[in-house]
Amino acid sequence: ALSKKKKRAQRPPTFARSAVRARVCPGRHMNLPPPAEGWPAADKAAEALFSRFQIDTSRKFGEGGYGATYAAIDNAATGAARNCAAKVVNLSKMKLESLQDECRVLDNLGKDGGHPNVIKLLGHGRGRRSAKQEGQYFIFMEAASGGELFDVVIDRGAKAMTEEEARGFFIGVLSGLMHCHSRGIVHRDMKLENVLLSSEGTIKLIDFGLSHTYGKDANGQWDRSQPLRRLVGSKSYVAPEVLSGVGYDGLEAGSCTPTSAREDTYSA
Prior knowledge:
single chain, 268 residues, alpha+beta, Phosphorylase Kinase, domain 1, Transferase(Phosphotransferase), domain 1, 2 domains, five-stranded antiparallel β-sheet, disordered N terminus, Kinase-like_dom_sf, ATP binding, nucleotide-binding, Ser/Thr_kinase_AS, protein serine/threonine kinase activity
């Protein structure tokens, strides 16, 4: 197996970074604006959030440039579902609006029971002023303790996984993407690092910070009349149409079928 340093060296670059991998920077951030709803309402929401969730800072799952992910407990759940994960993001390094947009995407994907191959959002919100956490944003999600699919692939080294194993992972990824596309959502940063595994080995798509959500037109169809032009994604995975800079249809780029979300399908 490769060392962690060598693994990191093999990771492809990303054109635009998402919000949820970050270094925690505790304390107050004086330049941050107050919440739109006002501090009393924000304080009440934060206290309610932390009465439901408890974070175990001694168990860190990962850390990056914008924050860190820890083990947590959901007091509203029972049994194994009590185990969850908390992403703690430094608001001085990531815009609050970007985080809230990503959470709205996850809320959308979680409606009507969500999908087993898309990570489930449990709760989110700004930190408590009483604990000097107002400079941080907290995102609570279901636990996916099986690690990244990237590590599963790289750890095998020259011993490739069987076709049956690879097929199972691929089906899980495509199934999760189909759910996203049925909601008019294009992930736009599909890669091995953005696919987690549950403790049972179930695929979980994560990191929707670069995603795009289509609106509906007058006929109730996804409005794709304007091409997308933002260059996002990871260089080794992104569809050629995205790199070309001429504009692309997120629900068609890179596939051989007009109903596929081609950009994500190409990356997968």
